[in-house]
Amino acid sequence: MILRIDRWGTELPPPTDPDPAGAAAVQELMGGRFGEMSTLMNYTFQSFNFRGRQGARPFYDLIANIAAEEYGHIELVAATINTMLTGASPIDDGRAPDAALADVKGIGNPHHFLAGGQGALPQDSRGNPWTGDYVFSSGDLVEDLTHNFFLETGARNNKLKVYEMVDHPAARALTGYLLVRGGVHQVAYARALENLTGADLTKMFPTPRIPTEKIPECQPHIERGDHLRLYRFSPDDYREIVAVFNGPHPETGEDLEVVDEAPEGALPNDLPPQPAVFAPDYAPEEIVQIAQRLRKQAGLPDKPTAKVANDDQGMVDEVKDKLTS
Amino acid sequence: MILRIDRWGTELPPPTDPDPAGAAAVQELMGGRFGEMSTLMNYTFQSFNFRGRQGARPFYDLIANIAAEEYGHIELVAATINTMLTGASPIDDGRAPDAALADVKGIGNPHHFLAGGQGALPQDSRGNPWTGDYVFSSGDLVEDLTHNFFLETGARNNKLKVYEMVDHPAARALTGYLLVRGGVHQVAYARALENLTGADLTKMFPTPRIPTEKIPECQPHIERGDHLRLYRFSPDDYREIVAVFNGPHPETGEDLEVVDEAPEGALPNDLPPQPAVFAPDYAPEEIVQIAQRLRKQAGLPDKPTAKVANDDQGMVDEVKDKLTS
Amino acid sequence: MILRIDRWGTELPPPTDPDPAGAAAVQELMGGRFGEMSTLMNYTFQSFNFRGRQGARPFYDLIANIAAEEYGHIELVAATINTMLTGASPIDDGRAPDAALADVKGIGNPHHFLAGGQGALPQDSRGNPWTGDYVFSSGDLVEDLTHNFFLETGARNNKLKVYEMVDHPAARALTGYLLVRGGVHQVAYARALENLTGADLTKMFPTPRIPTEKIPECQPHIERGDHLRLYRFSPDDYREIVAVFNGPHPETGEDLEVVDEAPEGALPNDLPPQPAVFAPDYAPEEIVQIAQRLRKQAGLPDKPTAKVANDDQGMVDEVKDKLTS
Amino acid sequence: MILRIDRWGTELPPPTDPDPAGAAAVQELMGGRFGEMSTLMNYTFQSFNFRGRQGARPFYDLIANIAAEEYGHIELVAATINTMLTGASPIDDGRAPDAALADVKGIGNPHHFLAGGQGALPQDSRGNPWTGDYVFSSGDLVEDLTHNFFLETGARNNKLKVYEMVDHPAARALTGYLLVRGGVHQVAYARALENLTGADLTKMFPTPRIPTEKIPECQPHIERGDHLRLYRFSPDDYREIVAVFNGPHPETGEDLEVVDEAPEGALPNDLPPQPAVFAPDYAPEEIVQIAQRLRKQAGLPDKPTAKVANDDQGMVDEVKDKLTS
Amino acid sequence: MILRIDRWGTELPPPTDPDPAGAAAVQELMGGRFGEMSTLMNYTFQSFNFRGRQGARPFYDLIANIAAEEYGHIELVAATINTMLTGASPIDDGRAPDAALADVKGIGNPHHFLAGGQGALPQDSRGNPWTGDYVFSSGDLVEDLTHNFFLETGARNNKLKVYEMVDHPAARALTGYLLVRGGVHQVAYARALENLTGADLTKMFPTPRIPTEKIPECQPHIERGDHLRLYRFSPDDYREIVAVFNGPHPETGEDLEVVDEAPEGALPNDLPPQPAVFAPDYAPEEIVQIAQRLRKQAGLPDKPTAKVANDDQGMVDEVKDKLTS
Amino acid sequence: MILRIDRWGTELPPPTDPDPAGAAAVQELMGGRFGEMSTLMNYTFQSFNFRGRQGARPFYDLIANIAAEEYGHIELVAATINTMLTGASPIDDGRAPDAALADVKGIGNPHHFLAGGQGALPQDSRGNPWTGDYVFSSGDLVEDLTHNFFLETGARNNKLKVYEMVDHPAARALTGYLLVRGGVHQVAYARALENLTGADLTKMFPTPRIPTEKIPECQPHIERGDHLRLYRFSPDDYREIVAVFNGPHPETGEDLEVVDEAPEGALPNDLPPQPAVFAPDYAPEEIVQIAQRLRKQAGLPDKPTAKVANDDQGMVDEVKDKLTS
After folding, report:
1. Burial label, B229 (beta-carbon count in 10 A; 0-12, 13-18, 19+)
2. Do F111 and F117 form a contact (C-beta atoms < 8 A)?
3. Is B84 in the C-facing interface, judged by CB distances under 8 Å?
4. What is the mean pLDDT of residues C61-90?
5. Among residues 4-63 of chain C, which lie with CB inside 8 Å of chain F?
6. Looking at beta carbons, which residues of chain F come within 8 Å of D31?
7. Fewer CB within 10 Å: C terminus or N terminus of chain A?
8. C129 contacts in F (CB within 8 Å)?
9. CA within 13 Å, CB half, D116
């Protein structure tokens, strides 16, 4: 089972200029063979299928716990795509439902607009869906770990290239963060393999052979030490990861560290409606009114019980103004 | 972000007779269009993509919170499949790697044995992978809720039929549980639609038109009141579901109820190694020894820090005996 | 546009012993690369996309008109599969929703039972869905006709093999009919190519090199002359097929013939409910009562306005007896 | 069986400026999950698989009859795409087979040009093929109707967004028409559900919450009353739809109406050859000559026996002039 | 470019008892994610896409040369499947085209009979097609080699399991051979990685942790030294593999060796016709006569110019007798 | 088995201006239904599965031998795509890993950059992967040959259209060559069918109805006589193709000819590194140094043992200069 926390793993900038072509590229990090859907589901299924887990507890805990972090990664990729798509259709009521999407004809992933509501999808950069055949769960621990090391390697490659292709601030914040966290997972699986077999994989780092340290957007996370830390994403379980995730970082030599709780993360942005695609409605203010009435009936306070990051920020407010004026 | 809890949503029986053909059928509840991968990922993406969530908070909270419960459902489906596959290959060392899988040639899903380690896969009953194209996330709240109501309806159909096809005790325990919990979600989305549009969907229940009450394996859960309860799967968030999930149950007229914490669940079974498929190894005892050494080095206690349900149960011990003798 | 006629292209026997494994094989003729979905959709799209059709009217009319006949073929394949699946689950109320599908676990296409209601699906014999990528519509008339000749050749191969694999009377009635009608289409496209290019394809018949005359179930259709006839499936259009479909039959030398109307066909069987899979309901008699009330309100006569073939036939009545007792 | 009528459900404008990027978007209405291939094939299979149809005749007739109308819809979507692609390659002989397609490199769906002859394909806006897995045919009448209501809801969403994205006159004529006709089907399935279960779905209309009346291109059809009418697409069958399709329209309150025959429709446009893609040939005039000779041999009149809309219209004639000069 | 040699990489036994269910399982080694289509195409594309190959020649030569050997592996997998399917349909003329395939209804991969002529297909054990998305060709040498090492690891897992599931003599001969040769490739990629990065992967062998030496069917190949040898599959090229493939074998410590020519291999078996599936014809003797006449006209000798292994062996002759009697 | 020769079937120009959108279109000739992966794999599987090959040796030899040539064709398509992608990312070290791929955002196939290293992939022009379901191998010789004739017809259509869409010199060199060689294969299969059945297909040539002679880039190959020649791609085998491939060319009347050895071909270009996508590395010069050391240790000469075409050509050298300075 899981508990869900309505916070993001890291801060993302609020929407600025939309970038639908960039958002289509970022989809590779969601639904590509090496995207976060793949890391999430590979580790999830491997943990579900782990046989003899009591005897091999440190390895089970490692895989199960990293799976938990990956859920937060698909959340961030989605948030990035949604941020980049915000504003790609006009919010001027007068225009919808006329030619409100004319500007994005032939731009980016058409499903972002025709199928979805300017939102993220479990697809890759080609617009092809993520598939369960991307999951490798052989049950053989050495093989599963070998796969996971390779998967993180491919994921790192894809993140670097999306970084190079898309310079939208949200995409850069995302890839800067994911490169650091994915790097930790790459190290974790290598170390698990080393501990299990005796092989020394240290010299295979970094792959691709660009030190994470060279990417400016990685710096804040490295400075905080997040390139060395595995967080324990559970109230009480997965306590034996310390038995596997330890020793020096293969690139920097610093000590790896297990943090015994989840990171604090950041408040999510509440992205504004996009009425041209009916998200969340053609007339979003009506939903607000209904929700307010239901909240009242339920005895909830006047203001939403949840906090978001952007109560008073740039474009978002501007959008809200239009929608509520 | 999520926190993971190493417990199951409900108790499952330990392995008894293997049922690989039944396990192949149960896969429909994992990776079919209406399987738990679909409920998990539909609600997950809809919550990620929810625009204007502050204004529509009760609806956002409902979808986001049900998504969290669904993770526990894919876990249970996987556990059921793994239980049913346990023992399908011999653990007698003398036989592997000879004709250890001869008995399952042509039986069930070949990937359970050839690709996986007698473990669950994100595939349906045909052996076809789950695909991201099963996700509907239009951003339009009325539509997404309509979809979700339909999705739960199809899911209920599939669960009932798997119930009829597979009488293995693990499959029955699974479907008995899922029918009750999925029924709650079906009600939740109908009620959300009612609260949003004013339409009255009460008379569409039950679909298929078999009252859950008629299924014996549903009884323990109904008696506990679990057909009426939505649990809040979060330490602190998603508090506004009460504004939507309320009123009488459409079939029984009893009051719906929000429980302000996750259910306690049950300890998982630690399923025994299946050395013929190298899960977790051809010689599992070697991994145990390595793990034990690593645990010692890390200062962990002699016994695993985690509890499982089956420290002293039937076949499982028998398997362990063979493996450790 | 089309008008639909509630009759079958040929008579099919009523349900006898169920044959779910055979039904799974017959699916190849529905959703396989060379199945009737493919013939229907290839000719449909080619006719939609036909450019300069006034100038090439006889060829356009030929393709458009054969497309129309193919709709009747997917209907017959579906009816055959449905017939073969009838009775595969018990209709004894006492059993459903218990282990009603236990007998078909591991037998045939699991989607016939888990996803569908013992009904036909747009899938092939592997359970893989028909895909739009099976459609070839190049717009180049010589190529499209070459494709169609090849498609009918492959279809004939598949029909012969399904004939050999499945000896259920419904499957035999189906393949006997389709071999004759598909044979006519194979001739039609060959003749169109001959008329267009001057090449002589006569000696390529038959392929596979088994004369249709050797298949007993083809005889009634051959005796009626249906191996020579192209029917015009339209009230008023597609009159120029006579300009292409003419000359001697390549195998028998008899004259090809255009019939200026659709064939009379046969009354469909009304297949009985299968309550174990909720088709059309868990308690079918309730739907009958509702329908009867609605019919009355609408001023319709007491008896259904439509005729079916099986008002008083064997197993079907028996099923009905059980359902109405 | 079907009879085919060589007329379109509504009039479409003749080709003007080509719009290949728009044509790629319109493909969503053909081969998308909610496209017309899906409505056609869902209702077709549901009607094929309908068990106990005599007892539930009004519901069977409704589904079977709407299936028939949908064939006319895939025809119109195809015609629209073909219209929009006309002129996208030059017809100037001097250029082909040189760089005749250079202008569409990277524009729209490459299969429109490389695989097809500037023609429609059973693909969606991503260029992914329609798949049989989009068909839901559970056999359970309540579920199938719930699905169909949801399917029409998603289809309406997609049509509105294509409307907003593509302002080519053919696309607008298409979506204006389909929104009205699809709206009728959405109502029909809701009403069928209401009549079957007693639930009242009236307040779920419209979804998305834009009244069809606000779309200018819908007006001619609404003024003619086509938002209230279900046509009977059959010479003699499906007479019991009146028992289900009745009562007030959920949005306007006007009475729903069954028309006892198919609509008259409109003459199709004969779209001009596109020799650069060899449709119907590199030298189309040769096919005309061959066809003319064959027609003569068959005793057909000098002029084609079929009428088309565009015997003397703008660009089409211009194209013909070039081809025949 | 390639030159093709009409010999097999190793000897396979002639057909004995057919094993269609086993043949379906062996398909995993053909078209599965880790099958020989994948090894062939991964290395082929990596060699095609290798940039700066002059500077990195030893690595290019290694990948390009192993690609060449893999073609011989898909050939052997196909030959094995064909051998196992031989005799699965009767060759008794009296039976075809009657119920000749009744015995294989529901057994194995239906496409082996309905689509193919009892022949191998590019599908996996589920009957799902091999897909180009199984190819990883990042261009980054470290990553491509990491992938290849992982791919060979997964391939070894699959071969071992097929070995355990299928004890047909042809399947055993195949897997015995492929385990040895795949083992060499696994070593080759590990050594290339070691030479490139300095990491030591020796201790990761063997994975799965069963020494190849324990498999009886591997012995003849090990005794011949084939677990140590990389053959150069080219008349003149790929001479620099010696710079990478050298040093001790990670399991045995013996010296790795490059053999400067292709292995001699073995004569292929000429598998007998299966007239029930029209392979190569319903009346195979007619093709023989035509071929003989054509050969004569071309001045070829009376006997075929090519040699096969089975001119006078068991069942094959028996089949021939029947066909020519 | 095969031997590989490190030469190309024909000469290709060195990289000039990159054309990523064109490269995406050329992918149709690689991984499309009618691309070279399809011709290669269709003929390969047909040859593997050929039953009774001694008796039908000339036909077996023909198919097996053409399969061998097709490997050279996928190599050329890959080389063309790689050539066209060269230079699409900057090689200026200062820029990577910053916005090095910004210029190709939204251009061409995103997998060329995000998944691959500016290299060819087994995908079509939509970015969809080649699939094993494109292989037709019925075992029935007449059908397989009919298919192959149709396949070459569709392939010719696609080549002509890619020719028209992409005027990059590499694409033109490729299509000019493939049109001539594919034309020979189209003739070969037609002639085989004629020899086998007696039908005369001469008049079906050319299809599409543009004589290859009209394409300027075909001229050098036609002048050399390559439109008439089938090369024998084997040291010793497939000698009986002469019994089938003979007689006059259907378009020109010239005599067809079998050449008893493979063509000489041309030296490949060594395409320069693209460090922005890490192909073959972020710092390619490091790999060169490592390789040089390994070569020395192995006793290889100082200069690479293999020759390439571009030791001193334009842009390639320029790239090398930058990389080695």
Report:
1. middle
2. no
3. no
4. 97
5. 33
6. none
7. C
8. none
9. 33
